[in-house]
Amino acid sequence: xxxFDLHATISRLFVYPIKSCAGVEVKETLLIETxxxxxxxxxxxxxxxxxxxQRELPRMALIQPQLKQFEMVLRAPGMLALHIALDAVxxxxxxxxxxxxxPAYDMGDTAAQWFTDFLMHERxxxxxxxxxxxxxxxxxxxxxxxxxxxxxxxARNQFSDGYPILMISEASLQDLNARLSAKGQxxxxxxxxxxxxxxxxxxxxxxxxxxxxxxxxxETGHAKQSEIILGLVKPCPRCPIPNIDPQTAISSPEVxxxxxxxxxxxxxxxxxxxxxxxxxxxxxxxxxxxQLAVGQNVRAQLQx
Length: 304
Prior knowledge:
By secondary structure, the chain is mainly β. The chain has one domain (6-302): M1 Pyruvate Kinase, Domain 3 (Beta Barrel). 11% of the residues lie in helices and 36% in strands. The chain has three helices and 23 strands. The protein has helices spanning 109-121, 170-182, 254-260; strands at residues 6-15, 24-26, 28-32, 35-36, 42-45, 64-67, 71-75, 82-85, 92-97, 100-106, 133-137, 143-144, 156-157, 165-169, 197-200, 210-215, 219-220, 223-224, 228-237, 264-265, 271-280, 291-293, 297-302. The strands form six sheets. It has a seven-stranded mixed barrel. It has a four-stranded antiparallel β-sheet with strand order 5-11-10-9. A hairpin with a 2-residue loop joins strand 9 and strand 10 (100-106). The radius of gyration is 19 Å and the shape is globular. 39% of the residues are buried.
C-alpha cells in the first residue's frame, strides 16, 4: 500500500528573472539552492536602492524577459529590446528588499535608462518621477527565509519576497474562476499569481494541506537524479498584484474581493492566501544537477 494519497503532475513551470516583471514559462529548469535558476536574480530599484514592484508600478507586468543561452532579452511596448548578458555584473551596490539589505551589482546606465524611460513614461497619477536602476543579486550573499516557518532549516533566496519557490494547483485557480463566473466576472489566468510550479491532479487547495511534496526522479543524460523533496512551509499571503491584468497592467479589484470571501488563513493571522511557499528539503548527489520538468510526477500525503 502506498504511503502517499495524493498524486499529481507538474503541468507548468515559470521563472521570473526580474522581480515583478513578467515570467518566462519553461518546459524544464535547473533547481538550485535559491529556487529555480535565474528566478528573481535581478530587481528594479529606486535612487535609494529600495525595490520597486507592480504595487507601485503596474507597468512592470508588461516587461517581457526572454532567456537565451548567454543573455536575457527584455521587451516592452514602444521600447527597443534590451540585451543583458547572463554573466554581466558592474559596480557593487547595496539594495533593500522588504527588511533585508543585500549586496548587489548595478547593471549599468543603459539598463537604468531603459527602465526609467518605460516605467516613468506612464507612471501612476501622483507618483513623482524617479530614476530607476537594474541590479543583480550577489550570489555570495546568504539571504534566508524566516526560520520560524522553515523550522530552523536554511532556505536561501535571491530577490523573492521571502521563499525560494511558490506552488499552486490548477484546481485552486479553477475553483476561483468558478466563483468569479458565478458572480458574472471574467475568469483570470494563473499568470496573475506568479507561481514557479503549477500542479495538475490535486483538488482545489490540496497544496494547503501538504507538508512535503515528493518529485519523481528524472533521467538527466546518462545519470538518474534522485527524488526531490520539497517542503511546503508557509501559505502565501496576497497583496494587490493579483488584481493586475498581466496583459494590460490595468488593476481592478474583483480578484482580491473574491479571495476575501473564502481564503482567510488563520495560520497567517487571517491574511488572504493563495498558493504555498516551498523550499528544497533534499539534495541529490553533488555531481548531478537537480532538474524540474513539465510532466514530472509528484506524490504527497495530506496532513490534517
